[in-house]
Specification:
Radius of gyration: 18 Å
Shape: globular
Strand content: 25-35%
CATH class: Alpha Beta
Oligomer: single chain
CATH topology: Nitrilase/N-carbamoyl-D-aminoacid amidohydrolase
Number of strands: 15
Structural class: alpha/beta
Distance between the termini: 48 Å
CATH superfamily: Carbon-nitrogen hydrolase
Length: 296
C-alpha cells in the first residue's frame, strides 16, 4: 500500500497576560512550523491567554468569545495563508452564562472544519474548570479535514480510555490533545516525576490500545496564582508525538518554549492494527456494564 504521511507541527509556548503578545507569538510559531514543512499544526489548551482557571473570578468570563468570532477569524486567516490544517483551543461563549472549553479545527482554506467541546471537566486545586466550563454536548466525534479524520480531545480528556476508544471507533486517524498541565511547587521531585510519567504513559497507552498516533501539546513556563493561595503552576511542557505502538517520534523538554515538526505515517497505523487486531478481538457482547458509574 502507498505510504500516507503527514508532517505535524507542535507549538509548546509560554504565555503572558498580554493577549496581543500571545497571538503574535502564536502566529510566529505557526509560521516557523510551516517553514519546516508542517501540514497540520496543533496549539496548546487555551493558548490565547494565561491559564485563568487557577482562580474562580467572574471577570475571567470576559475572555470568552463566540464561535465564530474574532479568534476564529484570526486563526482561519492564518490557516488559509499557510495552507495548513490548524487545531486551536478557545474559551467559547455559547450564550450568556453558558461557556465551553472548545477546540476548533480549521482546514487549509481557512474554513472551520469542526469543533469539539471538552467533555471531562476537572475541579482540582488550581484547576477550577467547573466554575467556567459546561461539559461538552456534541460527543466524541472526529473532525474530517483535507488531511484526514482528527480525533481532537482536550487535556483532562486525555486520562480517559473511553474517550480515545470512541474517537477511534468513529474512524479517527490521529488522537490530538491540546493541554495545560503542570506542577505546584510544593510537590516533591518524586511526586513530580510520578505525575509526568503517568500523563505520558496514559496517552501512549491510548496510542497502543487503538493503533493510532497521539499528539499531545502542553504549555510551558510558570504562571502565578492571582489569588496568592498557591505558588502558581509550573507547566511541564513535554509535548510529544507517539506512534501506534506507543513509540516516541518526538518529545519537547519541560522548561523551554519549543516548536517541533515530525512526520507521521498513517499507513503504519494500518499495519500495526493488522499485527495487533485489538478492535477485532474486543468482546463487545460483554461490555454493557461499562456505562455504569460503579458495579456494586
Amino acid at each position: 500500500m502507498d505510504n500516507r504521511t503527514i508532517k505535524i507541527g507542535l507549538v509548546q509556548q509560554s504565555n503572558t497576560a498580554d493577549l496581543k503578545e500571545n497571538l503574535k507569538k502564536l502566529a510566529d510559531n505557526i509560521e516557523a512550523c510551516v517553514s519546516q514543512g508542517a501540514q497540520l499544526v496543533v496549539l496548546q489548551e487555551l493558548h490565547n491567554s494565561l491559564y485563568f482557571c487557577q482562580v474562580e473570578d467572574t471577570n475571567n468570563f470576559d475572555l470568552a468569545e463566540p464561535i465564530p468570532g474574532p479568534s476564529t477569524g484570526f486563526y482561519g486567516e492564518l490557516a488559509a495563508a499557510h495552507g495548513i490544517v490548524l487545531v486551536t483551543s478557545l474559551f467559547e461563549k455559547r450564550a450568556p452564562g453558558l461557556y465551553h472549553n472548545t477546540a476548533v479545527v480549521f482546514d487549509t482554506d481557512g474554513s472551520i472544519a469542526g469543533k469539539y467541546r471538552k467533555m471531562h471537566i476537572p475541579d482540582d486545586p488550581a484547576y477550577y474548570e467547573k466554575f467556567y466550563f459546561t461539559p461538552g454536548d456534541i460527543g466524541f466525534q472526529p473532525i474530517q479535514t483535507s488531511l484526514g479524520k482528527l480525533g481532537v480531545l482536550v487535556c483532562w480528556d486525555q486520562w480517559y480510555p473511553e474517550a480515545a476508544r470512541l474517537m477511534a471507533l468513529r474512524g479517527a486517524e490521529i488522537l490530538i490533545y491540546p493541554t495545560a498541565i503542570g506542577w505546584e511547587s510544593s510537590d516533591t521531585e518524586d511526586e513530580k516525576s510520578r505525575q509526568l510519567n503517568a500523563w505520558i504513559i496514559s496517552q501512549r497507552a491510548h496510542a497502543v490500545a487503538n493503533g493510532l498516533p497521539v499528539v499531545s501539546v502542553n504549555r510551558v513556563g510558570h504562571e502565578e496564582d492571582p489569588s496568592g493561595n498557591t505558588n502558581g503552576i509550573q507547566f511541564w511542557g513535554n509535548s510529544f508525538v507517539a506512534g501506534p505502538q506507543g513509540e516516541f517520534f518526538a518529545q519537547a523538554g519541560n522548561t523551554e518554549a519549543t516548536n517541533i515538526v515530525v512526520e507521521v505515517s498513517l499507513t503504519r497505523s494500518e499495519n500495526v492494527r493488522r499485527w495487533w487486531p485489538f478492535l477485532r478481538d474486543r468482546r463487545i457482547d460483554e461490555y454493557g456494564e461499562i456505562t455504569k458509574r460503579f458495579i456494586d
